Amino acid sequence: MNGIYRNIQASIKNGEKLLAVLIDPDKFQIESIEQFISKVNASFATHIFVGGSIVEEDTTHILVSKIKKHTKLPIILFPGDVTQITDNADAILFLSLISGRNPEYLIGKHVEAISKLRKTSLEVIPTGYLLIENGKETAVEKVTGTKPILREHIQEIIDTAKAGELLGMKLIYLEAGSGAKVPVTNKIISLVKQELEIPLIVGGGIRNKKQLENAYNSGANLVVIGTAFEEDESFFDEIKRKK
Ligand code: 1GP
Questions:
Q1: Per-residue pLDDT band at 68 (split at 50, 70, 90)
Q2: 78, 97, 189, 224: which to mutate for ligand 1, most atoms within 8 A of CB?
Q3: Which residues line ligand 1 (CB under 6 A)?
Q4: What's the rounded Cα separation, in Å, for the pair 128 and 59?
Q5: Residue boundaries of the structural domains of the chain
Q6: Average pLDDT of the residues in 68-92
Q7: The ligand 1 atom nearest the CA atom of 183
């Protein structure tokens, strides 16, 4: 599958809202993949993201192969580490943690990834990743040794996102962190969106349809949800695709 980024742009132009279901290989029971993906297929989800903060080598590869057997949705890697790069996905978010100041997550891991990426046909999508404080420490903070930007530091969040765009990133991802107590606020989403020409992804702590709609109404082009589906698959009933 090619042109994933182009398709995202085209969908946005058509006024469509995009939804990615995030599957964390570390938390997912591989035996239940078929029934889980059938629910994803019946929903209005448009993408599947695969990734996590700490994942054992090869687990991502095996999981992506299984997912692929059961869906036509594009599968995008959302890797926490270089070991999660696998050729059988369609694209990869090449994430730079621009809210932090750890050079490993700004450029180091990227250099390390090149020898692996060269051997794949993955579409590489440069993505500026901003971690926003949500009331509790997240896995990203622990793994990367960086601090999130405080929610009240709105101008810093806006300026960081804009700097990412001007550095040539193709997407901005506003992240409250997996399982966040509270999602990124509507105010932050809308102020960041006003500054950007590129698509905006929002994720972290979105657990119901109202929060999902709030994110869209505030300007999110693509919303990512993982934990809510891990905790309660009946959430899929609320987001069924219209026939
Ligand atoms: C995490 O933004 C994603 O990196 C999704 O967050 O698991 O809280 O939905 P949740």
A1: very high
A2: 224
A3: 22, 175, 178-180, 203-206, 224-228
A4: 25
A5: 3-238
A6: 97
A7: 8
Atom of ligand 1 nearest to the CA of 203: 2
Give 182-222 pLDDT, tens digit per residue. 999 999 999 999 999 999 999 999 999 999 999 999 999 99
Please say if the pLDDT value at position 242 is more than 90: no
Distance of CA 1 from the midpoint of ligand 1 (Å)? 25
Q: pLDDT value at position 101?
A: 98
Q: Is residue 46 pLDDT above 70, yes or no?
A: yes
Average pLDDT on 41-60 reads 93
What's the rounded Cα separation, in Å, for the pair 99 and 92? 20
- The per-residue pLDDT for 57 is 84
Which structure tokens are listed for 31? 């035996």
For residue 106, report the distance from its CA to the centre of ligand 1, in Å: 20
Written as one letter, the residue type at 214 is: N
* Sign of the dihedral through C-alpha 229, 17, 203, 89: positive
CATH architecture, domain defined by 3-238 = Alpha-Beta Barrel (3.20)
Cα angle 166, 167, 170; round to 5: 85
| Distance from residue 206's CA to the centre of ligand 1 (Å) | 7
Task: Report the pLDDT value the prediction gives residue 71, as an integer from 0 to 100.
Answer: 98
58: left (phi over 0), alpha (psi -120 to 50) or beta: left
Length of the chain: 243
